[in-house]
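Subject: for your reference before the review

Hello V.,

The reviewers asked for a structural picture of the protein, and I figured it would be easier to keep everything in one thread rather than splitting it across files. Below is the amino acid sequence we used in the manuscript, unchanged from the supplementary table.
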Amino acid sequence: MPRGYADFGLNPGNYGQFSGDNAELAVRLGSPDVFERRGRVVWFDDMSKGLYTYFARLQGAGTINYYMQYGYTNGLVHRFLPPLVAGQYIYLTRSISLLNISKVGMEILIRVEKLPGKLATVPYINFSYMQGVNYYRFLCKLDPNNNDVIIADGAVYPGVDTIVYHSPYIFYVDTSGSQFTYLKMVVDLTTLHYDRLVFNEHGVNLSAYTPAIVPDAEAPKIQAIFGVLANADAQFVDFCSPLVTIDEP
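And here is what came back from the structure prediction:
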């Protein structure tokens, strides 16, 4: 039974304020959450601090810029321009202290731009779990050129690309398109399996799939990573409003 006042009825004269409904947590924090209201938010980016909260990894001539255009909440995006050499990558990483062992989720909004006659750039999210002995790599890619959602499955690094969902519609835009694709991946750190994926209005059960494993003695933590894979056409990808949750059902 909830204690205290509901979000819309706080009493500033009362000593101590409590959440009347934890399901409202993401909303109070300014979450971009549209389809999912599950899990407890432990970190999110409201896009107000640019790239300063991230570690950036750049290969070749790839760039990541803080850009004011199309952003879902306040017009701001992180714009990725990949290098021209296929196989190279660029990404942003945010490390998050491990609060408990549970199902954890990562969600983000992605805008893939594709010009006529060009290949769209492939964006991905990667949830990395370090538990003191091994590093577990949970990775999901969006292939806009084939309308596929792909995960890296299997214990042998880097995992096997496995198509888990084929979209019935295209999810790239031209230079005038402002819409974003919503992507959320949930993984189960208690069983070391993927759990589920939400792609816009669609849901996919991923519980049969496992992450890639690499020996790694780093202190326990999780890393939320998002980036793009290069090809010779080097089209833009915009990311905004990443969010990480724990205690997913």
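For the response letter, the relevant points are probably these. The chain has a mean pLDDT of 85. The chain has one domain: 32-246.

Happy to draft the paragraph if you're swamped.

O.
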